Amino acid sequence: MACSFIGRSIATGVRHIVNESVNTPVCAVDGEMHSDIRMLILALTGACNFRCTYCYASAQTPVKIPRAALRWALDLAGASGNPFVVQFTGGEPLLAFERLVYAVNYIREKKYPATLQIQTNASLVTPTIAKYLAAEKIGVGVSLDGGVEANDAARQYPDRSGTATDIMRGLQILAQEGVAVGMTCVVGAHNIDSLQSVVDMAYYAGNVRKLGFDLLRPQGRAHSQSVVSEEEMATALRAVMQRADELERLTGQHLIFVHGQRVAQLESGRTEVFAHCYAMTHHALFVNPLGECYACASLSAYPQFRIGSYQEGLRQRAGQAASEEIRKAMERCYRCEFLDTCGGGCYARWAGGSTAHEAECRLKQMFIYRYEKQKGGLR
Questions:
Q1: Which among 101, 156, 221, 316 could disulfide-bond with 29, CB atoms 3.0 to 4.6 Å apart, if both were Cys?
Q2: Which residues of 221-259 are buried (b: 16+ CB within 10 A; e: fewer)?
Q3: For residue 180, what are the domain limits?
Q4: Cα 312 from Cα 25, distance rounded (Å)
Q5: Radius of gyration in angstroms for the set of CA atoms belonging to the chain, rounded to a whole number
């Protein structure tokens, strides 16, 4: 998830372009209007029915995003006529399901070439919601941190009760409607010793096609003691890979690791170094529930990455400054021998003096080794 905005100039000398039906500025960017957004992340609400111990977004205001902000952001992304991705997030986006429906209807009405995704905890999925997601071809990402014990150590309800059972129930409902999902596992001290259990849960669900790992960083409710070391990451990942290989042999079903898939794409030239960092490349926008815009969803806690709002428009110089800060910080990646098959790190894991990037580097190196080993015909 990332965000920025600068790309192809479509107007010059324009301070405010007003959409008459909305009466809010489409874009104000310190002199020029730009729109080449390829990833639009919309936080439909800051509210959540979970209270995860490490939540990055815990400071978000628990309100629903204004409909005017949705229209403004979608018009901005659709202005270039190029295909783009819309990811609905939160909080928990299904607490604002009517906002999702509103946004989807607006996209269809405007005939925008958008690919739709939602990142959800799945606990609020009903058959009606699952049918809707399937009918609208909305890609679904679900967060789960491992087996029941590992997940429930951190992904909890406000009363500290566990959430794994409800997450799995949601996955089952999605499976009944033929909805395949990608699973994200946050990696921290709470689950590092049993990380392989997330592979068991993915296979048990039956409809998980991809598995990605999000290394915990000290932001929001998370603290530095929860960050894992590179040695812990290496040990855990060896167990993860071994378990995945075992279950593939037993079931005949292949589970795609997102990091491994990226290595293959980089090696084949289907993607480029730092293509994942939209904040660096100026091709994304994150809009929070108040309609404020940031250069990256993962950096929305940092004021220096705020680049405007749906009411004031976007500020080009703020976006450029954010991009430059990220680019400068990530220069160290260009000195690494693994860059061509790693693709570069995530600035959010370097921000604020975090050491989370050390485990990230080890994780990516291990998937590079795995890819090279499999490509050579070894197993």
A1: 316
A2: bbeeebbbebebbeebbeebbebbeebeeeeeeebebeb
A3: 9-375
A4: 7
A5: 20
Measure the CA–CA gap between 177 and 172, rounded to whole angstroms: 9
Task: Tell me whether residue 263 is in a domain.
Answer: yes
pLDDT at position 298, please?
A: 86
Work out how many domains the chain is built from and give that number.
1
pLDDT tens, position by position, 218-231: 766 766 668 899 99
DSSP bridge partners of 215:
187
E strand residue ranges, 101-259: 114-120, 139-143, 181-187, 208-215, 256-257
Sign of torsion, CA 319 320 324 327?
Answer: positive
Question: Concatenated DSSP letters for 258-285?
Answer: HHHHHHHHHHHTSS-TTTT-HHHHT-EE
Torsion sign, CA atoms 241, 247, 248, 249: positive
Give me the count of residues in the chain.
Answer: 379
Query: What CATH number is attached to the domain comprising 77?
Result: 3.20.20.70
| Region at 15 (left for phi over 0; alpha for psi -120 to 50; beta for the rest) | alpha
Give the separation between CA 130 and CA 128, rounded to whole angstroms: 5
Count CA atoms closer than 13 A to 303's CA, side-chain side. Answer: 0
Greatest extent of the chain over all pairs of C-alpha atoms, in Å = 63
| pLDDT average per 10 residues of sequence, the chain (379 residues) | 29 27 42 70 97 88 97 96 96 98 98 98 98 98 98 97 98 98 96 98 98 86 78 97 98 97 94 85 90 91 91 89 86 90 86 73 95 75
Q: Is 293 helix (H, G, I), strand (E, B) or coil?
A: strand
| Environment class of 375 (CB within 10 Å of its CB; exposed 0-12, middle 13-18, buried 19+) | exposed
4 in a structural domain: no
DSSP-derived 3-state class of residue 225: helix
Domain contains 341 = yes
pLDDT in tens, 124-135: 999 999 999 999
